[in-house]
Amino acid sequence: MRRVAVVVLEGAKPLDVGIPAQVFTTRASMPYSVDVCGVRPGLIAGGDGLSYHVAHGLEALEEADLVFVPGYRYPDRERPPEALTRALQRAHERGARLAAISTGAFALAETGLLDGRRATTHWHYARSLAERYPQVQVDDRVLFVDEGSVLTSAGAASGIDLCLHILRKEAGVAGANHAARRLVAAPYRSGGQAQYVPQSVPESHGERFTRTREWALRRLGEPLTIERLAGHASVSPRTFSRRFRDETGYTPMQWIMRARVDRARELLEETDLAIEEIAATVGLGTATNLRRYFRRVLGTTPTEYRRTFSES
């Protein structure tokens, strides 16, 4: 079991607190236990009319493997508590991973652990984060940023994407997809996907592209060209390519390739299919192609990946 601590600060946003608590909830299908804590035990006034009563103080961080700092109101008005800053630094020093949702990035930046690294936060607070912590490379265009031992995400919904991303790395694709189904959430949105579309795009196109992505995920083993995807979306290939990248942060073919790699990961975890057969099933054609894309995306080979999960 891996231990997760969710730190609730004054003015904490309800969705930001609830997302990691629910995604990593203690249950038979999940290898995690969750402690919700505060700077000290007791009643904490939250945002949006809600308060929290937590049983644990910062001692919960002493044995946590993963620490979440949810977003809180008015992070640009005052510094986070010094006790929290020290506790986060100590947790990081002994190997815990630290993850911030939305404005929780301010508390993480206060530790100095984001200096020289990329980070994100809710787009509304991105400028304030960059001005207060100029050593942090703030990127307000993305849903989340994974810098290894420190991770940050944008608004509340992207907290789900961050949590599923962590699950995908720690528990495998199948475990992340199981959690996504339980949450009725999209199983995969890349961290590079835009927080919001900078151009004005008619809503009907956004809905149509969502359906096209879902349609493509069910047909990864088939030839999927830009022309075929655009035809399903009922727009021109040029329009589809431009707007798809605005919505996802990837070109259509980059997105398809990553979806195929993720499907291959799931098959490697759950089946004994040969590498060549998996490559054909997910639409990558040959084992050579699968190995090349695996190395490009994950930095490993399909065989090494399968061995890791067979030994876990």
Automatic annotation (TrEMBL):
Keyword DNA-binding in annotation: yes
Coiled coil: none
Top-level division of the source organism's lineage: Bacteria
UniProt xrefs under PANTHER family: ARAC-FAMILY TRANSCRIPTIONAL REGULATOR (PTHR43130), HTH-TYPE TRANSCRIPTIONAL REGULATOR RV1931C (PTHR43130:SF3)
Highest classification ranks of the organism: Bacteria, Bacillati, Actinomycetota, Actinomycetes, Micrococcales
Species the sequence originates in: Leucobacter triazinivorans
Domain HTH araC/xylS-type span(s) in chain numbering: 210-308
Single annotated GO MF: sequence-specific DNA binding
Keywords: DNA-binding, Transcription, Transcription regulation
Presence of the UniProt keyword Protein transport in the record: no
Protein name per Swiss-Prot or TrEMBL: Helix-turn-helix domain-containing protein
Short name of any one Pfam family annotated for the protein: HTH_18
